[in-house]
Design a protein that fits this description.
23% of the residues lie in helices and 26% in strands. Strands 5, 6, 7, 8, 9 and 10 form a 6-stranded antiparallel sheet that branches. A two-stranded antiparallel ribbon has the order 1-3. The chain folds into 3 domains: 43 residues; 89 residues, Type Iii Antifreeze Protein Isoform Hplc 12; 124 residues, no CATH class. The chain is built from 4 helices and 12 strands. Strand 11 and strand 12 form a beta hairpin. By secondary structure, it is an alpha+beta fold.
Length: 301
């Protein structure tokens, strides 16, 4: 009987030890899981609250407080021009001036959509107008720049594939009316990389399909306005579409009919100068009313 009791006691002690080891292992696993969770939380990218659109917004739509929703965006990857929900708090944390507010003056000074936005897409300054402004060309011009309209057709307008926001090179074709090249027909690159701000009467960059425009409006400086106006009044202008992301600056280009066809200019023949006539020396002798000229050798110098 005592032997049986001892056996049961030993078995109970063994089971208790096993239970203690198992519980200790569970606690250690929990500690490891907690440590991993803390490490993951520490490694999580910080976020910031920004305004995004609730639904799809297209060009020309007014943007009101009811059209936006607050979302969390990864702070290190925040795009330039995003509108923060609490710009003053962000400025206090960063020690800079407060970023622009989306609706600084309430709904009365609402903004207008300039570029299409999809649901939950952050609102960017480049995609909306200034508070109280419309979606016209003036809201798209950079400081100090002007809008200039160029007449185009199917050929000069790149077959209707131009869109607001594209960049183009401008070529002038006409006849030179002054100087040694008077009468020569030439085509010359006069402006490079001009930004289009409107096609006909629309500034919507989300146009689809080819548009056979009659005018395109470019963003230029006042000096370029004068240059283009003079070029348009003395010849014809053609546009060449610049590829997206192409930062190449086009060099000076000029082509005339001779260079186009590979015709070499004929050399100018200079006529040989005729030798001067031989010098003739004479002596005049008067015999009464008659004067006689007698040739003699000319004196040498």
């Amino acid at each position: 009987m005592r032997a049986l009791f001892g056996l049961v006691l030993v078995a109970g002690l063994g089971l208790a030890g096993t239970a203690v080891v198992m519980v200790r292992g569970q606690f250690q696993a929990q500690d490891r899981a907690i440590a991993q969770s803390r490490a993951m939380i520490a490694a999580v990218t910080p976020t910031v609250a920004v305004w995004a659109v609730r639904e799809r917004m297209v060009y020309g739509q007014p943007l009101t407080p009811g059209d936006v929703v607050e979302i969390q965006y990864a702070a290190p990857y925040l795009p330039e021009g995003a509108f923060l929900v609490d710009p003053e708090a962000a400025a206090a944390a960063g020690g800079e001036e407060p970023p622009a507010a989306l609706f600084p003056e309430g709904e009365e000074a609402r903004r207008v959509v300039l570029r299409q936005m999809e649901p939950n897409e952050p609102v960017l300054a480049i995609k909306v107008s200034e508070p109280g402004e419309d979606a016209g060309i003036t809201s798209r011009l950079s400081a100090g720049m002007r809008a200039f309209a160029i007449s185009v057709d199917v050929a000069s307008g790149v077959s209707g594939f131009l869109r607001p926001g594209d960049r183009v090179d401008v070529y002038w074709s006409g006849q030179i009316n002054e100087g040694v090249d008077m009468g020569r027909e030439v085509t010359q690159l006069i402006e490079s990389g001009l930004r289009l701000v409107a096609i006909d009467q629309t500034a919507d960059s989300n146009m689809t399909g080819a548009v056979l425009a009659q005018t395109v409006t470019v963003e230029v400086s006042p000096q370029q306005v004068a240059k283009l106006a003079q070029a348009q009044s003395t010849g014809t202008l053609s546009l060449s579409l610049v590829g997206q992301g192409d930062a190449t600056v086009a060099a000076a280009i000029e082509v005339d009919q001779r260079s186009l066809l590979g015709i070499e200019e004929a050399p100018v023949e200079v006529a040989a100068a005729e030798p001067p006539p031989p010098e003739v020396c004479t002596v005049r002798t008067r015999r009464g009313a008659e004067v006689i000229e007698t040739p003699i050798d000319c004196p040498t110098n």
